[in-house]
């Protein structure tokens, strides 16, 4: 079977299993049957069992399938791709600094958005989305597009799923948080639902994102192949 088909099958398997096991009905039944910690173990095992073969298949068959688009190494779009990557890394780091949207459900948590949560209520998932888009821009082969397209799909579907689950679990507190924030970056700020202040600047995340971007630029040819700078 063609490598592109295998990549597509494993990508679909990862996404489908992730969404099914984390769905409200299945999640509740599994936790009721085996408990919270064993459920997390099952979830991790299934994720590894589908993500591992996907990464292996893609690593063996980069640039599989027909070339759908090609961007010259010196095209300005390359700088857009790196700007997206820098933003993605800042958001991913920031998601650990300000985890669990609004701190809702955590001891002493508040439903008042702060920092990056004023930009997007799911900074980690938005980081995955931007990571995938940046790599799709620079890798136009069908197999690459399917592999990297999985990240935006996971981010979008995961954000929608998480919002629905939080509403069921936390009720009005999370509805208030939803009303004040946006999944789409900057939508809440542009609409005036929240206001940015100097205290919201994520300096630690920005610094870490810059360092990680520089490290990836230097190490990408050695670890992943390719030449991001052309």
């Amino acid at each position: 079977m063609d490598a592109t088909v295998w990549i597509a099958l494993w990508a679909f398997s990862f996404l489908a299993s992730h969404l099914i096991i984390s769905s409200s009905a299945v999640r509740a039944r599994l936790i009721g049957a085996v408990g919270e910690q064993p459920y997390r173990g099952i979830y991790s095992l299934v994720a590894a069992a589908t993500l591992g073969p996907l990464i292996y298949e893609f690593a063996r068959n980069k640039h599989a399938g027909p070339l759908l688009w090609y961007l010259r190494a010196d095209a300005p779009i390359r700088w857009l791709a790196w700007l997206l990557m820098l933003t993605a890394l800042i958001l991913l780091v920031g998601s650990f600094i300000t985890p669990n949207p609004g701190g809702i459900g955590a001891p002493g948590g508040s439903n008042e958005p702060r920092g990056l949560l004023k930009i997007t209520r799911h900074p980690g998932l938005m980081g995955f989305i931007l990571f995938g888009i940046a790599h799709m821009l620079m890798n136009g082969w069908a197999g690459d597009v399917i592999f990297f397209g999985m990240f935006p799909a996971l981010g979008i579907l995961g954000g929608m799923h998480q919002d629905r689950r939080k509403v069921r679990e936390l009720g009005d507190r999370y509805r208030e948080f939803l009303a004040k924030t946006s999944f789409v970056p900057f939508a809440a700020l542009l609409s005036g639902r929240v206001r940015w202040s100097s205290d919201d600047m994520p300096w630690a995340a920005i610094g870490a994102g810059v360092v990680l971007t520089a490290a990836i630029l230097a190490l990408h040819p050695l670890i992943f192949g390719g030449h991001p700078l052309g």
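The chain is about 70% helix and 0% strand. The CA atoms of residues 64 and 121 lie 35 Å apart.
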